[in-house]
Amino acid sequence: MSDAISDRLGALGIVLPEPAAPVANYVAYVRTGNLLVVSGQLPLRDGTLLATGKLGGTVSLERGHEAARLCLVNLLAQVRAAAGDLSHVRRVVRLGGFIACTPDFTQHAAVMNGASDLAVAVLGENGRHARSTVGVPSLPLDAPVEIEGLFELG
Fold this sequence. Notes:
Layout: H1 3-11, E1 29-32, E2 35-41, E3 44-45, E4 48-49, H2 61-83, E5 89-100, H3 108-123, E6 130-136, E7 145-153
Parallel strand pairs: 5-6
Antiparallel strand pairs: 1-2, 2-7, 3-4, 5-7
Helix pairs in contact: 2-3
């Protein structure tokens, strides 16, 4: 891992976990040329979801923000597994966020900022990305957030 990225992760108190294994018939990531597509990651810590339920229901905005941040940590763990280390990341191209929420919940962007803010904190300008964030009625394992990513590698 590059010293700068390693230093930023360390300063934030983040240790990348072992990447989670896929739970169904898909792969964790696909590399084509210099692009790396990482499948959706849940807010898992030591194999356990940080929270369950829906935003606007039993999950607070703050907990949703924290869950999105943890999803990005898990995305970075998959990127490290695919690329060997994070020094190969040229930029975060796109993040796609899925927020399990009640029909009246409208603060999707504030939840997704947990991931976006961390991407910029860790990768600087190369962490700035395009994104979409949508509300959904449910996610696997009753997770409140799932995030997928597209990365450019060098």
